[in-house]
Amino acid sequence: MKNKIEISELKVHYGDTPALNGVSFDVYENEILGIIGPAQSGKTTLLKVINRTLEFTQDTTVEGSVKLDGVDINSIGDVHGLRRRIGMVLPLPVGLPLSIYDNVAFAPRTAGMRKKAELDVIVERCLQQAALWDEVKDRLDSLGTKLSGGQQQRLTIARALSHQPEVLCLDEFSIAVDPITTMRIEDVLKTLKNEMTILLVTNLVQQAKRLANRTAFMLNGDLIEIDNTDVIFSENPSNQATYDYVNGNFG
Amino acid sequence: MNNNTDISPEAMFTETDIGRRNRFIENVFKTFFFIMTCLMILPLLLIIGYLFYKALPVLSLDFLFTNPKDNMRAGGLWAPFLGTIYLVVVSLLVAAPIGVFSAVYLNEYARDNWFTRIVNLAVVNLAGVPSIVHALFGVGAFVLFAGLGESILAASLTLAIMTLPVIIASTTEALKAVPMSFREACWNLGATRWQTIRRIVLPNSISGILTGVILQVSRAAGETAPIMFTGAVFYKAIAEGNFLAYNIGDQCMALSLHLYTISTQVPDVAEGIPYGTAIVLVGSVLLVNAAAIVLRVYLRTRKKW
After folding, report:
1. Sign (positive/negative) of CA torsion B32, B34, B35, B36?
2. Of A76, A170, A190, B70, which is most buried, counting CB atoms within 10 Å of its CB?
3. How confident is the model at residue B38 (pLDDT cuts 50, 70, 90)?
4. In this complex, is the C-beta atom of A92 within 8 Å of any C-beta atom belonging to chain B?
5. B38 and B67: one domain?
6. Is A106 in contact with B191 (Cβ distance < 8 A)?
7. What pLDDT score was predicted for residue A39?
């Protein structure tokens, strides 16, 4: 199996506070990797390192390396291009104060695409993929910020898909989404993994169990265990803490 | 049997002592705050009403469009009125771009380090400097050192220095009102900082930025100290009705200084003239402020979250 992302000895400090203490693992191409773990375990930090948006936070030090397709991400000169190769969905939905159409067309436009016909195709495809098209197709020029929370989160997903990322990072995407929509998005993710690699950070261990090919368990900035999802959720994962966490004994 | 059946329906809906007391206190404070609000409006209405009453004999279009005559004892306000417009416009043309763009830099680009902290501290302190100090700085820096002489340009630059820190502060407030999550979403999409600023931050803070700038018109128009040593004169006749009558290197008259002159330096001025001058000064400032409010309402109806 081809490695899409290779992370080795990744250490991150916020000032003096450690967030990641030397994490190493690989992400395979076209898999869904579930990342579970309680709060403060470093999951979100990990995603921010991968698309280099941690650089916007002050006083952070990053050691170790992250490679995308074998290339160190810090050696990629076009950081904005790198960010467009990675789709990012944050926990709370953020509809940009633009029309629904402009929300989805935002990333292609910043990348220089101007042709209306091409943008139309992208907007429709992404909204379809995010299971939002049917609800908004008649009002694409109304404001993205006026949608309901669940709709805004699907808009966020559509936006993350709009620049055709190779890697899709979802950080607790279902927090603001109702269960039925969550199931619809999960179905979408299952098809999307044929086209891209998906990192699914989630607090819902059952969601990782449903979707992920492999699951990583993180705790206090350490990677405790990474293995096939059925091993993590079996009676005998290699670490007792993993068993306790997925079975709700703590966390 | 339920104990509640002891309470008759009437008793359940009768106000308790605590409820009555809370309602009383609620009314006391509501009335108190309302009276305070009236007290705030009252002086404004009285001042404007009194000015109008006293100025009524002289108020006319001619008063606005003729020069002062007979050692300011007759005639109108054309030269000082136009002078004030020149000073305000030129000073804002200088202060608004510098203030707005430096606020954008400080808020959107600059990292929080010792340099930006010193700059922010300087901005806050500069805003608190008395205007007479700005005047002395203007004399030293613009009139003498830069060799501009006493001119509209020197006076406008002095006013610009005075209004700059407040414009920076108000612009910063307007920028901060745009949620950080919008910027993060843009960065995650691979937008540069400039793309983020141009497409998201500025369109959603422009009403606040413009309001902050326009409110500085009233300060620039009303100040006497910064201009009286740097470019404003007691008397200067100019072509009546010609909006281009001043040259930027000329000295000029100004409403605020004119009001000071005719009230204290010139004996036997007809009573209506100073009041009329005050009405024109207050009126033009209020007009500009009203324009700011209209603009703000218009832009806010387009606010997008």
Report:
1. positive
2. A170
3. very high
4. yes
5. no
6. yes
7. 86
Could you write out the DSSP letters of every residue in B28-47? Answer: HHHHHHHHHHHHHHHHHHHH
Tens digits of residue pLDDT in B143-173: 999 888 889 999 999 999 999 999 999 999 9
Give yes or no: residues B227 and B89 share one domain. yes
A51 CB neighbours in chain B (<8 A) are 188
For residue range A35-92, list pLDDT tens digits in order: 998 888 899 999 999 999 998 888 899 999 999 999 999 898 899 999 999 999 988 8
Query: What is the rounded average pLDDT of the residues B8-18?
Result: 77
What backbone phi and psi angles, to 5 degrees, belong to A172? 50, 50
Mean pLDDT of A216-228: 92
Q: Report whether A150 contacts A181 (CB < 8 A).
A: yes
Is A3-246 a CATH 3.40.50.300 domain? yes
The domains of chain A are located at 3-246
- Report how far residue B100's alpha carbon sits from residue B108's, in angstroms, rounded to the nearest whole number: 12
Residues B120 and B22 occupy one common structural domain: no
Q: Do A97 and B305 touch (CB under 8 A)?
A: yes
Q: Give the CA distances from residue A242 to residues A188, A215, B167, in Å, rounded to whole numbers and listed in that order.
A: 28, 11, 56
Band (A155; pLDDT cuts 50, 70, 90): very high
Total domains, chain B: 2
A154 touches chain B (CB under 8 A): no
Partnered with residue A17 across adjacent β-strands are A14
Please answer yes or no on whether B181 and A106 come within 8 Å at the CB atom.
Answer: no
Most A CBs within 10 Å, among B186, B188, B197, to test the A interface: B188
**Mutate which: A79, A80, A84, vs B, most B CBs within 10 A:** A80
Task: Read off the tokens for A66.
Answer: 């992250």
A80 touches B: beta carbon within 8 Å: yes
pLDDT of residue B3: 53
Tell which wins on pLDDT, B94 or A149: B94
